[in-house]
């Protein structure tokens, strides 16, 4: 008969093994995504607190060649900083029971300087729908991002 210690050891080993295995299809979210309206490139990665994303450049088709500063940031000291490298989303976790969807995250909108609750879903292998909202998803707006597989105009955080 196994001892409690050996059962606990087995549970710990199984837990450690499950941590190192990628989360059931979630790696399809990792990569470069282009915003529909501004041609900003957001790099999404699997971060410590969940999936996160930061502005890393502009798409090849962007009409501008530079990212502006974070002029609307509620912290006046940050308003002169470049949007390059700015975290614009974070803490997204896979939805329970629904593949290709993430929830519980936050989205920062540099256009108004506000941070919103967020959820995301893949609408195909190359289309990501991000919804930022206040209180409940009903009170929000969607942003459609397209997967960028070609070259991007990487920005530099220095002004």
Structure description:
The chain has an eight-stranded antiparallel β-barrel with strand order 1-2-3-4-5-6-7-8. It has one helix at 4-20; strands spanning 31-35, 40-47, 50-59, 87-94, 101-109, 114-122, 127-133, 140-147, 152-154. With 159 residues, it is mainly β. It has a single domain (23-154), classed as Lipocalin (Beta Barrel), CATH 2.40.128.520. It contains one helix and nine strands, in the order αβββββββββ. It is globular. Strand 2 and strand 3 (50-59) form a beta hairpin.
Name of the CATH architecture: Beta Barrel
How are the strands ordered across the major sheet?
Answer: 1-2-3-4-5-6-7-8
Task: Provide the CATH topology.
Answer: Lipocalin
Tertiary shape = globular
Structural class, by secondary structure, is: mainly beta
Q: Roughly how many Å is the radius of gyration?
A: 19 Å
Distance between the ends? 67 Å
Stretches where pLDDT falls below 50 for ≥5 residues? Answer: 1-26
What is the CATH C-level name? Answer: Mainly Beta
Number of beta-strand segments = 9
State the major sheet.
8 strands, antiparallel, barrel
Averaged pLDDT: 79
Q: What is the tally of helical segments?
A: 1
**Helix content range of the residues, please?**
10-25%
* N-to-C series of helices and strands: HEEEEEEEEE
**Number of domains in the coordinates?**
1
* Strand content bin: 35-45%
């Amino acid at each position: 008969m196994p001892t409690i210690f050996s059962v606990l050891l087995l549970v710990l080993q199984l837990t450690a093994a499950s941590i190192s295995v990628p989360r059931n299809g979630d790696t399809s979210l990792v990569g470069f995504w282009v915003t529909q309206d501004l041609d900003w490139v957001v790099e999404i990665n699997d971060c410590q607190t969940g999936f996160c994303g930061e502005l890393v450049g502009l798409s090849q088709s962007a009409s501008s060649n530079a990212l502006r500063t974070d002029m609307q940031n509620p912290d006046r000291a940050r308003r002169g900083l470049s949007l390059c490298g700015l975290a614009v989303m974070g803490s997204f976790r896979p939805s329970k029971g629904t593949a290709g969807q993430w929830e519980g995250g936050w989205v920062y909108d540099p256009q108004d300087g506000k941070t919103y609750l967020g959820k995301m879903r893949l609408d195909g292998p190359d289309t990501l729908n991000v919804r930022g909202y206040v209180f409940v998803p009903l009170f929000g707006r969607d942003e459609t991002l397209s997967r960028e597989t070609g070259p991007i105009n990487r920005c530099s955080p220095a002004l």
